[in-house]
Amino acid sequence: SCFPMDVVRTRLMVTGGMVKYGGMRACIATMYTKQGLGAFYRGFLPAIISMAPNGAVYYTVYDRLKMGRLQQLEREVVAA
Question: At what angle do helices 4-13 and 24-35 cross, to 10 degrees?
Answer without folding.
Answer: 110
